[in-house]
Amino acid sequence: MKIILLAIFCGISMLLLPATQLQAQDTNSPSNQTQSTEKGSTSSTEKDGRAYSGMYSFLKDGEFLQVTVEDGGSVTGYISRYGDGESDKGAFLDQFFKNGKLEGSKLSFTTEIVHGVTFDFRGAFERGSGKNPGDEAYYVLKGTLTQNVTDADKKVTSHSRDVAFKLFPQEGAPAPAIRK
Hints:
Low-confidence stretches: 12-43, 175-180
CATH superfamily of the domain at 52-166: Avidin-like
Strand order of the largest sheet: 1-2-3-4-5-6-7-8
Oligomer: single chain
Mean pLDDT: 79
Structural class: alpha+beta
Order of helices and strands: HHEEEEEEEE
CATH topology of the domain at 52-166: Lipocalin
Largest sheet: 8 strands, antiparallel
């Protein structure tokens, strides 16, 4: 009889032990709360940056700038533009970003060389005239664009200008709620 009682007592204590351990793991210690707060702020910042992703106008009608914000503030994208050199006049050229970075709302990128031309951009995203996400010009990318042209003698000529690129309307954007 004593052996049976001892076995039952041990079985009950074994059943209680895992529950106690689980309860200790579920307790929100200050360090666990800090980690979840930090993760929340990081994901909120990343979501904000991703909202800037999209297609923007470029220098001429028919040209555009594609910006994609990745995790951690890295940026990929490309410029689709008409060539204006002797060998590529009127041809449509794609220039991919060599590097790009987003810090808050500030964007910088440099493109790869295509037909002796590169672009450097330094600027920031701002709210534009669009009223709802997905509207044209909901965001505007303002800053300084520098075009670097390398000639046959390897001489580089740079031309900088202030620009404002508007976000194109997004077809898949949710429709605004109808207010009554």
